[in-house]
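dude i think i finally got it to work??
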Amino acid sequence: MKITTVGRQMEVTSDLKQLFEEKVKKFDKFFKDEAEAVVTISRKRNLECLELMITANGTLFRSEESDNTFRNALDKAIDTIERQIRKNKTRLEKRFKGSNYDIDAFVNGDELDEEGEFDIRVKTFSFKPMSVEEAILQMNLLEHEFFVFTNMDTDAVNVVYKRKNGGYGLIVPD
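look at this
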């Protein structure tokens, strides 16, 4: 597994890099060599924040945790991703079928709290081209956390969303 460590507004020490590589290598038995992991660290309000994102076979696993130390935040992030894998074991097996990923090696015969069928509610609405600012306004008027719209400048489907820090985000297709 390829592991990249990024520090936001801070320097990543070699001790931290070594710790992250040591702990994230735990996923090697499941994800094999083709997976990539990105560990992003920062400090916010006297807490050490860590985001762990693993990309494997087109599937993203992500966890964002804060704690007093990066070690504790990393342990929480790893536990979160393990729970995600256990909870979605059957779906992941179908998705990774034919690849060299081994879900069973990761789960270790533990009791699974696997999620059942998805309860999907279909909602339809009219799409009209609008600016990013207009989409944010519409999202706020609806009191939603995100809003899907057609960007009038690019004619592409975009998503605006509220960020935890109070700002806004824009998702644009690649």
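The chain has two domains: 2-107, 129-171.
im so relieved honestly
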